Amino acid sequence: MKFQPRIAIVGGGPAGLTMGVLLHKHRIPFTIFELRQKPSEEQLNQPSGMLDLHEESGLAAIRECGLYDGFVPLTGECTEDFIVADRDGKVLFTHGDEGTRPEISRNNLTKLLLSNLPKESMKWEHKLLSATRIDSRSLSATELDFGTHGKHTFDLVVGADGAWSKVRRLLTDTKPQFTGMHIITVTIREITKKYPHLARLIGSGTFSSLGNKHAVISQRGPIDSSRIYLWLTVLDEKFATNSGLAGKPATNAKDELFKSNALLGNFGGPVKELVATACDEEAADHPGENLDIRALYTIPHGTSWEHKPGATLVGDAAHLMLPNGEGVNQAMLDSLLLSNAIVKAYKTADNSFDSFQNTIDPLLKEYETALVERARETGKETEGLIGHMFGSDDAAHDFAKIFREMTQQHPEQ
């Protein structure tokens, strides 16, 4: 009987689930541990954030999973149309749908990946309390402590556990750093039916109104929805608490956001109406729930660590960045490349743990070296993008100019 390495994937987001599907495809055993409860079908049918997958990364992983034919019918709820407007809602740039970066809702992607995983491989409601290296003889293993669910030992642990990764602590002391930015998320369902004038404002894809170093961003999604992201430059890390918004319903956000020009007070009427309507609709759809407001963090791009056998990272655990359209793509690419290394080691190692560890160790080093370099380059691109979006009080014109020049140079984009 062939040696079976004990592999744990901590985190059931896109990176962790993609990794699981790819290992399952090659009949390599693994266990995914996820903090959240198992989502119901009803929950997975609700509006969620949209993800545009890129051919060289996210789509490459989907194709390698063998899921592209199942993926295509789940797209189309948000087109690739892209609108840049100033703070008054005046459109400065529009780019049409080219069909090269299809959008899929986070919930639909989760459903697609989960449906291709063995149920016994998923462990829901498992909160990782700590990860500890165990070194004995020449062998290395990692003990994961899940509290009431017990302690379990693995030969390889993949940290897909996001921004505040506990697996990362095995490898580096690097911690997320506050960026001086916050995001409030609210949703309007059935916007075309209820508010056709707002639907015309934001279009069928992504809409961005920029000004005063803030942004009001809309993405269309399931249930004819518009998910609105209020991206605020506020240097107070405790803004949610200090503003009184934490623990309050979404309707409370309107007065706070509009009362001062330091926030959205000098945005134009159409954009304010979009924000106010979204806050009201969010509170009506989720009575008793608190406003979704969170501070944004990153880790320095190109963060590296000394390789240690038996543990590695993917996604935000490895390269947490500001939202840039690349996060899920880089995470899924990480999982694709790491799974390739695991499959190679699994197929070429002799029938023993020693052989597997000795085979996979140099492959993990190669994977991590390439990951760090990709993260460094993507981080630089992200800094440039965010700088253009939030670098001045009137950034919309600069942002529109960049996209106009980009499309003139590359009309196929």
UniProtKB/TrEMBL annotation:
InterPro entries: FAD-bd, FAD/NAD-bd_sf. It holds the Pfam family FAD_binding_3. Keywords: FAD, Flavoprotein, Monooxygenase, Oxidoreductase. Residues 7-225 form the FAD-binding domain. Gene3D superfamilies: FAD/NAD(P)-binding domain. This is FAD-binding domain-containing protein.
